[in-house]
Write a structure and sequence with these properties.
The complex is a heterodimer of chains A (177) and B (426).
Chain A: H1 3-28, H2 31-48, H3 58-76, H4 78-93, H5 95-98, H6 104-113, H7 117-127, H8 133-140, H9 144-161, H10 170-176
Helix pairs in contact in A: 1-2, 1-3, 2-3, 3-8, 7-9, 8-9
Chain B: H1 7-18, H2 26-50, H3 56-83, H4 86-99, H5 104-109, H6 127-141, H7 148-161, H8 166-177, H9 179-184, H10 186-215, H11 220-233, H12 236-245, H13 252-262, H14 265-274, H15 278-290, H16 294-305, H17 310-318, H18 325-333, H19 338-346, H20 352-363, H21 368-377, H22 381-391, H23 397-425
Helix pairs in contact in B: 6-10, 7-8, 7-11, 10-11, 11-13, 12-13, 13-15, 14-15, 16-17, 16-19, 18-19, 18-20, 19-21, 20-21, 21-23
The chains are: A mainly alpha (177), B mainly alpha (426).
């Protein structure tokens, strides 16, 4: 890698590393897995930097690598993921937690982490990375219309799962209809 | 969010904004930053060595070219050999051997290791190269801060025994003399060392051949000297040979020292299991503890629970204040299954920072169970005091109960496995 290119990649990675880690943790629902995902993203970024076109947004490029790593891992480690989900569930619902009130905030994050992967990707990019639909489309390789649809599905799923927390006053409901 | 304007959507947005995930802490970010630096360094060194990754067609064409060239050279050599009378060849090889001080034993002994009849040139090494290369190697493998002890130990190792080459002896002397200056002048060393390191890497192969030539000789002084020289060279082949030597009486500790200083983490980890001597085990365990990064710290953690190494590892951990506490606590706080093993491993360490960290985790509902288990098992005064307090605390008593239960389960399982192994062994 040429010195100039190396410096440029270094700058891009350092600028985006905190966001990338946050994104990875939200996607995987686990800091350790998030850290692993970022490490793999770093490796792929180094390997593919020479192919990166300058006209694209480096942030979008990095996030799309992270999404690809995430998808690859889902494919190859489907069983492990299920096991981890089970473990997370037992961790949360185990007897040690019974005496403590489950935090609403954690309940929400858990439901986000349990969304189907594609819905999770779209929702996390939109809500927490505050990307535009066009940007999300670039990161995930989707058309904007599909991004909207997937986001809609994700939100509907969450509304269903979190309906006990979503109380709408009756008069507002009738006002809308 | 503008696109969603029903009250339910607004509420959902509020809920989503308030969500919290398991903490991606500062330590994690720092770890990733240092990992990034090393990855970037590795990639630069690789590209210096082999240039850009070639396309598959380019690989193939290079292979064909190399094959054609080798064939051509082989044919030429054969023609030359056939055209010259045999006695002349024997005579011409004599001075070449003399020029590198090769002993008759070495000529007889030439096994596959050296695999060359060509004279190996004594490498052109300036004191500057040597200093900078060592500085860079040490910084890469240890920490960003060069440590005086590292330099001193390497310098002493080489200086005390080598003595077989005037140029190397003088370089070593310079190294020892300039030690303090080198360490204090870190900024300058950083600037020059990358360039020097690349030169050093190019020369390494020659040096290695030269060093092992002496290692195959029968003189113990040369053997030791060249092995110590191999410490500084540290190619993969050298490490492999040093690994083999670790089991030879009289040479084992020297080889262990070499690997502990420059071997990869996994080499060090594996060797701890293999070496019979407690002294060597101790050296290697200390090396793991001394290295930066997550991997060696977690490897050490495993040795704290390994029946073959636990006593020694616990002694070391309890006698030093340079423990990788944050990494260990991170492992205990993780959602991995290994968190229970990690908790049991640190339970026997009476270190204030470890105990305080465990207490902090035990108070946090998301990480409480494994940390509480470590505290329940611990025999340290602070830990016992906290457990006594937690048992009477309304919020923490359930966690203590769960931790005790889990500990009991693990100990029962361990006993069951031990009994089964005993029966199988009989």
């Amino acid at each position: 890698m040429r010195e100039g290119a190396r410096e440029q990649l270094d700058r891009v990675m350092r600028q985006n590393l905190p966001n990338l880690l946050g994104f990875a943790v939200r996607l995987t629902g686990c800091p350790d897995q998030g850290e692993d995902l970022v490490q793999e993203t770093m490796l792929r970024a180094i390997r593919n930097w020479s192919r990166f076109r300058g006209d694209a947004n480096p942030r979008t490029w990095l996030f799309s690598i992270a999404v690809n790593v995430f998808r690859d891992r889902l494919k190859s480690r489907a069983n492990q993921q299920r096991q981890l989900d089970r473990e997370l569930m037992t961790h949360v619902d185990g007897p040690e937690q019974q005496s403590m009130a489950i935090e609403l905030k954690e309940a929400i994050s858990r439901q986000v982490s349990r969304l189907p992967p594609r819905q999770r990707e779209v929702l996390v990019l939109k809500t927490y990375e505050e990307m535009s639909v066009a940007e999300i489309g670039k990161v995930l390789g989707m058309k904007p219309a599909n991004v909207y649809t997937t986001l809609h599905h994700a939100r509907n799923t969450l509304k269903e799962k979190l309906k006990s927390f979503l109380e709408v006053p009756p008069e507002t409901k009738s006002g809308r209809s | 969010m503008n696109e969603h304007d029903t009250p339910q959507d607004q509420q959902l947005d509020q809920l989503l904004e308030s969500a919290t995930w398991p903490d991606a802490d500062e330590g994690r970010l720092r770890r990733l930053e240092s990992r990034w630096e090393s990855l970037l360094d590795e990639s630069s060194l690789k590209s210096t060595r082999s240039g850009r990754r070639a396309a598959p067609w380019r690989h193939r064409s290079v292979v064909w070219l190399a094959a054609a060239a080798s064939l051509l050279i082989a044919c030429s050599l054969w023609i030359i050999a056939v055209s010259k009378p045999a006695p002349e060849t024997a005579e011409s090889s004599q001075p070449a051997n003399k020029s590198i001080h090769k002993t008759p034993e070495e000529t007889r002994d030439s096994s596959g290791h050296l695999a060359t009849t060509e004279p190996v040139k004594e490498p052109e090494l300036t004191k500057h190269d040597y200093l900078a290369a060592l500085a860079y190697a040490s910084r890469k493998r240890r920490d960003e801060q060069p440590r005086t002890n590292t330099f001193r130990s390497v310098a002493e190792l080489i200086a005390t025994k080598i003595g077989s080459s005037p140029w190397l002896a003088s370089a070593t002397q310079v190294l020892v003399h300039n030690l303090d200056e080198l360490v204090s002048d870190q900024g300058r060393t950083r600037q020059i060392s990358r360039r020097q390191w690349n030169r050093y890497r190019k020369l390494r192969r020659d040096w290695e051949q030269w060093a092992w030539r002496y290692a195959d000789s029968k003189t113990s002084r040369h053997q030791l000297g060249s092995m110590r020289f191999a410490i500084a060279i540290s190619t993969q082949t050298s490490l492999q040979r040093l690994n083999e030597m670790a089991s030879i009486d009289g040479l084992s500790h020297d080889a262990v020292m070499a690997i502990s200083w420059l071997g990869q983490d996994r080499h060090v980890d594996q060797l701890i299991q293999q070496v019979p001597s407690q002294r060597s085990k101790r050296t290697l365990l200390l090396a793991l503890l001394d290295r930066p990064g997550r991997q060696p710290a977690l490897m050490f953690l495993q040795h704290l629970r390994n029946p073959n190494t636990s006593v020694l590892a616990n002694n070391i951990a309890n006698s030093t204040d340079q423990l990788p506490t944050e990494i260990w606590l991170g492992s205990i706080a993780s959602h991995d299954r290994s968190r229970w093993d990690s908790a049991l491993a640190v339970a026997n360490i009476c270190d204030q920072r470890v105990t305080q960290g465990l207490i902090r985790l035990a108070m946090d509902p998301t990480t409480s169970s494994s940390a509480m288990m470590a505290l329940v098992k611990s025999r340290c005064a602070d830990a016992r005091k906290f457990v006594a307090y937690a048992e009477n605390n309304q919020q923490l008593s359930a966690t203590v109960m769960v931790a005790r239960h889990r500990l009991q389960q693990i100990e029962n399982e361990t006993t069951r496995f031990q009994k089964r192994d005993k029966v199988r062994g009989m």
